[in-house]
Amino acid sequence: MITTRKRLDPSVFDLPLEKMRAGYYTDAYFNHTRSTLLQDGRHPDVVMQVFQKRHAYLGGMDEAIAILKLCADSWDALEVHALYDGDVVAPYEPVLTIAGDYTTFAHLETVYLGTLARRTLITTNVVHVLEAANGKPIIFMPARHDHHRVQTGDGYAAYVAGQVVGAPVGVTTDEQASWWGGSGLGTVPHALIAAYGGDTVVAAKHFADWAPADMNVTVLVDFENDSVRTALDVARALGPRLWGVRLDTSEALVDRSLWEEMGDFSPTGVNPRLVHKVRDALDTAGFGDVKIVVSGGFTAEKISAFEADGVPVDAYGVGSSLIRGSNDFTGDIVVTDGKPSAKVGRHLRPSSRLERVA
Fold first, then answer.
1. Which residues contact 41 (CB under 8 A, 6 or more apart)?
2. pLDDT averaged per 10 residues in sequence order, the chain, 358 residues
3. Res 90: pLDDT
4. What is the structure's pLDDT at 341?
5. What is the span of the domain harbouring residue 20?
6. In this structure, what CATH number is given to the domain that contains residue 305?
7. Number of structural domains, the chain?
């Protein structure tokens, strides 16, 4: 099969090669298995088949291939077939097969399976959120909810999801954007507002004075829990320099603008009524071009509900929900020395979708 799709160069991933080659990141039983085979002088020629059990969008394949290319004893002696990052995969469908001397790559199984599991989880979660958002931009915001070492690959997995759906995905750190040459973006945060004594307008003015001309200046307007008033104050102060306001009301609070309206809806956090009030206020005051970004507890389900109700949101900031869940991968030796050898319940699943990796 001929393809025009390209894979990332293995050097992009900056892998800890010596430790990977030594089995440092691998479950001990795989290292013990390899040592046993080597001591016995046995070099079984196997087919390793990798799959997962959900309907998912594949992530981490280029990284998994890089691990094999750079850390297997002899890449040239292996025959590897794989799908591509972003491919739709079905339950139990093989996404990767590795054929060759098992002792040359046994010490890498934990690493490539874990890579596929993490990145596929992120890619799949982001695709679902993007689909729920009907093409509106998503800001990928989980960086503060997880260890910094996962940022790079997670950011790329989010980027892959954006390519799948054809919708924009912004990330919040430069590290998250590093594999495709992007950069992090961000709004005027609560910390800057606090640094100016809780005055959102003053903080926004100073931020706008500092910000590069091509930056979309977006300001959080919930610091005083009065989003309508603050959004208007910021819009009047910044004029055309203001690109958008971001609503991030705590799920434990009711915005001041809703205090007289409670009774027939859930008033806490960022809710449809609050967004409509901010939009109506901005439009009435002549600031119809100012965008509204929402964040705080958003999931694919919550976004779907907002979209179904026609809530006037221009972009969604989504954080911890994008890194929750699981998408585990399994690797099985299904052929040994030319004969079927899978455990009961597993078998070789030929797939015409897999492409030979050069």
1. none
2. 70 96 96 97 98 97 98 97 97 98 98 98 97 94 90 93 92 90 88 97 97 94 97 98 97 94 90 97 98 95 97 96 94 97 96 96
3. 97
4. 97
5. 10-121+326-356
6. 3.20.20.70
7. 2
pLDDT attached to residue 302 = 96
Max Cα separation, the chain?
A: 81
In this structure, are strands 45-52 and 329-336 parallel, antiparallel, or unpaired? antiparallel
Rounded Cα distance, 223 and 230, in Å: 9
Phi, psi of 309 (to 5 degrees): -90, 0
273 contacts: CB under 8 Å, gap ≥ 6: 258, 261, 265, 267
Write down the pLDDT at residue 3: 39
Residue 107 DSSP symbol: G
| Residue 264, pLDDT score | 86
Q: Report residue 119 CA to chain centroid gap.
A: 7
Task: Report the C-alpha gap between 189 and 191 in whole angstroms.
Answer: 5
271, 220 contact by CB (below 8 A): no
What's the pTM? 0.92
Give the Cα separation of 84 and 176 in Å (integer): 20
Of 172, 128, 142, residue with least CA distance to 302: 128
* Residue closest to 220 by CA, chosen among 188, 252, 268, 249: 188
Map tokens 């690493």 to a residue. Answer: 111
Residue 5 lies inside a defined structural domain of this protein: no
Measured distance CA(228)–CA(53) in Å, rounded? 46
Q: Are 318 and 338 found together in one domain?
A: no
Sheet holding 329-336, edge to edge: 339-340, 329-336, 45-52, 96-101, 79-82, 355-356
Asked if 102 and 46 count as a contact pair (C-beta separation under 8 A), the reply is yes
